[in-house]
Write a structure and sequence with these properties.
mainly alpha; 0% strand; 366 residues
């Protein structure tokens, strides 16, 4: 799959499964590093570090590893080499911007809640709550890609919010569909597994299943289901990154103009103007057919470049004085050719008269 070309929702979902499957080692290493950092920060509480400092450090580590995970998944999606230490070193400024973004959104949310409370006068009707919930969900979807713009496009918080608003506005239907897929997939998996166990165990495995002391087989089954749930959860995370990359590349590619060559007009002796030729391949084909040369292909290409893209210093404007030596040279050559032709005619006449004289002497001797 080419992530730079528009893809459907299901194609991106399947590709997220494939990406997690082929990059499980890198993702496990990333998760292990995140776990070690979290444990290290949590251990600071046992060395008499204030609790609020531990919480701040824990939040910074969480934000930093989130940015690193975005960058790692994006590199894996584009088949680029991945170095987790290098990604962690380059995630410092995006992490700071992400913290600023979260603070800005948090303050804006508190102010909006206070304003709504003042306007509504403390009413808690179901209709008001539903309307506020829909507005909050709409804003959540429109601003969802702002952290990814910071992590993957190196935008500042304000420009990231504007870019996310623009991107989701142009693809709002697809964003809603992706959100539904990402939300329902884990729920459907858990529901299917729970319903299957709830119905299947009493009917088929009532004698072999004991919840107080499960057998090794049931422990392995539960571990397998847990691994599948983690796999689906990570795939959903990767899925959102792929959706962002696909949508953002689609916006960029649509804005790029096609490369069109300017109109070319070639005027020369006994030649017609060549107009409305805009494709480079067509130009090369036409003039390669007209060039008759025994030189190598490299010489032909060099000749074509000089013809169609002459440098300013190579352009020479001829005047009448420049053409005079050529004209005089042509006149002298024509005069010399005329003299040679007259001499040839005289030699030819002399040879013919000599042959006639020899024939007369022979006749007189008879």
């Amino acid at each position: 799959m080419n992530i730079r070309e528009p893809q459907s929702v299901l194609t991106l979902l399947v590709e997220s499964f494939k990406l997690v499957n082929r990059s499980v080692g890198t993702l496990l290493l990333l998760g292990f590093i995140s776990l070690l950092l979290s444990i290290g920060v949590g251990a600071l509480a046992f060395v008499h570090v204030p609790v609020f400092m531990v919480k701040i450090l824990s939040g910074l580590v969480s934000v930093g590893m989130t940015v690193v995970s975005f960058q790692v998944v994006a590199a894996l999606a584009e088949n680029q080499p991945v170095s987790i230490p290098q990604k962690m070193a380059g995630a410092v400024f995006p992490s700071v911007y992400t913290v600023i973004l979260n603070l800005f959104l948090g303050i804006a949310g508190v102010l909006a809640a206070l304003l709504i409370g003042v306007i509504s006068g403390g009413m808690r009707s179901v209709t008001v709550l539903v309307i506020l919930g829909l507005i909050g969900f709409f804003l959540f979807l429109r601003l969802f890609f702002a952290p990814m713009f910071i992590a993957l496009r190196e935008e500042n918080p304000i420009s990231a919010l504007m870019a996310s608003w623009q991107l989701t506005g142009d693809n709002f239907g697809k964003v809603v569909a992706c959100w539904l897929v990402a939300l329902l997939l884990p729920i459907c998996f858990v529901g299917a597994c729970g319903y299957g166990l709830y119905v299947g165990i009493p009917l088929y495995f009532a004698d072999s299943f004991n919840l107080a002391s499960p057998s090794l087989v049931w422990i392995l089954i539960f571990l397998l289901l847990l691994v599948l749930f983690v796999f689906i959860s990570v795939s959903v995370w990767v899925y959102w990154v792929l959706v962002f990359l696909n949508l953002s590349y689609g916006e960029d590619s649509s804005a790029e103009p096609a490369a069109i060559l300017p109109k070319t007009q070639v005027v020369g002796e006994e030649t017609q103007p060549l107009e409305d030729v805009q494709q480079e391949g067509e130009i090369s084909r036409i003039f390669k057919m007209s060039v008759q040369s025994r030189e190598g292909e490299g010489a032909i290409e060099q000749h074509l470049e000089q013809v169609y893209q002459p440098r300013p210093e190579d352009v020479v404007e001829y005047t009448e004085e420049d053409r005079m030596p050529t004209i005089l040279f042509d006149d002298e050559m024509a005069k010399q050719m005329e003299e040679n032709r007259n001499k040839w005619e005289e030699e030819k006449k002399k040879s013919r008269s000599k042959q006639d004289g020899d024939d007369g002497v022979i006749k007189m001797s008879k």
